[in-house]
Amino acid sequence: MAYGILPGWIYITIKMLVFIGRFILLFHYTTHNSTCPALTWYSAWIISPFFGLPFDTYKYHHIYMHHAENNQRPWDTTTTLPYQRDNFCHFLAYWLRHAVGVSFELPYRTFMRRSAWDAFVLVTKLVSDLVAKYVLYQYYPNATLWLLIVPYWMTTGALMFGNFSQHIFVDPEKFDKNTHLTYNCIGKGSLNDRIFNDGYHILHHENGKLHWDKLPKTFGENWKEYDAAGAFCFKGLDFCAVGFFVMTG
Questions:
Q1: How many CB atoms lie within 10 A of CB 66?
Q2: Which domain covers residue 211, as residue numbers?
Q3: CA proximity to 185, closest of 207, 162, 208
Q4: Structural domain total, the chain
């Protein structure tokens, strides 16, 4: 096991610093708008587990839950509303709830808000993912640890910090309005060139099917409406930077 520690950490570091954002946000938009179903299937079933996402479960969490419920309690289990969002310990609780509880809360939410069949299919996928990891670990412990298990914890941490940061400023009186439950990050430093313009997050919540390359133009044509609504827009920062600055005061 010791032999795999250094190569494993080098692999994880490169993956998290170079590839994680590009893949997850590409997969994010192809899940919203699949122009090539075969490629989307390949990403969901073959590539995603290596980035910490169980077999074809991302759409249940992000599309069917987060966008459908829009950060609202109680059915969006990733809502930021119950948390003190400038408190790092509250973020850790938020992350732990997702990392450990998603396998229970997401099927329950799917059962209650979609159908028993959807919940059954989701549970089957989650169990299949756990069984596959268990079996592979018996034969290839080092490879399974660094390729499948560690990425799960790293990716859930990154995704939850991103989502926590995207919904870190919520107006308690207008928490159900897109212009007040998230904000936009634009310009140099927003990383939009790497994350498929996910910085235009208000627009993305308004219309999840709006293609990523149309987001800047749409914002440019309608920015006065967002300004009049009191929406936040940061220039030169990405979501993680905003979250970091908020949590560190």
A1: 19
A2: 171-249
A3: 162
A4: 2
25, 155 Cβ separation under 8 angstroms: no
The reply to whether 86 and 41 lie within a common domain is yes
pLDDT in tens, 12-68: 999 999 999 999 999 999 999 988 999 999 999 999 999 999 999 999 999 999 999
Of 142, 168, 194, the residue at which a domain comes to its end is 168
> Could you tell me the CA-to-CA distances from 58 to 24, 26, 30, 125 in Å, in that order?
10, 13, 11, 11
Q: Do the Cβ atoms of 66 and 78 come closer than 8 Å?
A: yes
Q: What b/e readout covers 68-107, taking b as 16+ CB neighbours within 10 angstroms?
A: ebbbeeeebbbbbeebebeeeebbeebbebbbeebbebbb
Co-location of 17 and 140 in the same domain: yes
Confidence of residue 5 (pLDDT cuts 50, 70, 90): confident
Specify the pTM: 0.93
Token code pair at residue 234: 């940061």
Q: Give the model confidence (pLDDT) of 88-102 as tens digits.
A: 999 999 999 999 999
Tell me: do 4 and 58 sit in the same domain.
yes
Distance of alpha carbon 198 from alpha carbon 9, whole angstroms: 28
Report the relative pairing of strands 233-235 and 184-186 from DSSP bridges: parallel
Distance CA 31, CA 219 (A): 22
Looking at 111, 144, 168, the residue that finishes a domain is: 168
